[in-house]
Amino acid sequence: MQKLWDIARTLSVTDYLSYRDYLARVYGLAKSAYVEYSYQKFAEDLGFSATNVLRLIIKGARPLTSKAAVRIALSLKLSGAERRYWTTLVKYANARLPDERSKLFRLLLTYKTRRSPNELSPEQVAFFNDWSNPVVREVALLPDFDGSPEWIKSRITFPLRLEQIKQSLDLLVKLGMMSFDSHLNQYRPIRGQVETPAEVDSLAIVSFHQRMIEISREAITQIDEAERDVRALTMSVPSKKIPELKARIEEWIYEMSRLEHDGDSGGDEARVVQINVQMFPLSKKARRGL
Most buried among 51, 61, 120, 133, using CB within 10 Å? Predict the structure, then answer.
């Protein structure tokens, strides 16, 4: 049988946002290569005693400690950015304080970027790692934008420092999403679709959604009820209906996005709005033994 680290080498740990999923995949590949491979052998190969401990960790019955993560990294011969990503991923999963989780998440994105330095520029990382950059760009696309960061600051509902807005605008210029007229000292938007590079898709989207969920919580008390809509529905559905539920949400989001492009403003001023949709299970699947 192949050495376990040779099997792990066929994977990139930076493709995973769950250490349990990564371990499950490594074990699954080992099991496919050697049908008699067991969780006890898996634990032994990773530097633990020959017990079911890795099965319990993968199934979510036990957490993986930072000390154990280092042992696994050594056993799988993870090095450089991949090793740092792995150990940070475990710390992120175990962290409870929002500020700590945010800091660790930014580290994960940094290590993921180092894993593919030729495919992702620092500017792209910066754009997708800060929720305010897409917002600044959308506000700058409003018809009455006067080209100044002060105007953007006056129009954004949630406070951003002027220096933050200037940094965002300069970043957008570097990315070709804005231009800057040095004679008039004005920024001008360049229209076009923003595409998310595949290399940062998962981490960037997670980071963006996390921040937007925080902002939506603030909006409940800071935005007048006449200008916002907050709804929640708790229900029970068969597991086989969840894909259909997700598909209907996707269709609805598509319909909402068409409102931006229908061109029927009726002379009314445009506003930048945020629409968040979250759907997630509140109950676990029935366990059929560990």
Answer: 133
